[in-house]
Amino acid sequence: MTEDRWVACKVLDSIDFGLEEGGELVFETTICHEIRASHDAVAIDDVASSPYCDHHTPLQNGFQSYISVPIIHKDGTLFGTLCAIDPKPALVDDKKTMTMFRLFAELIASHLDSRQLLIETEENLRQEQEVASIREQFIAVLAHDLRNPLASMTAGTRMLPKAPLDDRARSVVALMLKSVDRMSNVVDNVMDFARGRLGGGITLRLTDAPLQPTLEQVVEEMRSVWTDRRIEAEFDIAHTVRVDHPRLA
To answer: Keyword Nucleotide-binding: yes or no (predicted)?
Structure first.
């Protein structure tokens, strides 16, 4: 039911009224038109002895008893009505019948609300997945674009040891080379993350090598960053360890 249309969603016609599913009635000629404004149920046992005796709807449609209960969403909006008519008088304005109709109306409203919530949840999930996909593609592009300037930095840093340098400078250059290598590994990790999220998987490069140099490199970089701190580390790992050493660093 809308502001100007009355459409039958489901019909059980045992009195040959002639209304089918999807059929429409002129909205202004229905009692539902009034229920839409009031949200109140209407029950008529016998039109002739009710306030609706001169109402145009029973006169036009030829029914004598009528019941209609609004189907209201949890947000207070009206979906439509659950109604029944009979060409003969019948007891419908009683507690048992009204309770049954109200319960059915509430059940229909609950089902409609649940269905709408499911649709909204699926749409929100789809949008979140699209955003996540775009974000992960952006990360992949960013990591890819970092490779070229990083490659230039690596090439330039590797040329420095060929120039005349004192011991202190050579130590700094060696540390720079290790840091550039680590930056390259970070970019590789970002690329791996993006590939993993986008379904490409993460490739591990496992090698059997001593673990101590890898850990010492990390410690040396920490010392170069935190020059005002005293960082002590002691390792005693004689055997080789099969891991992805660059990723571990």
So the answer is: yes
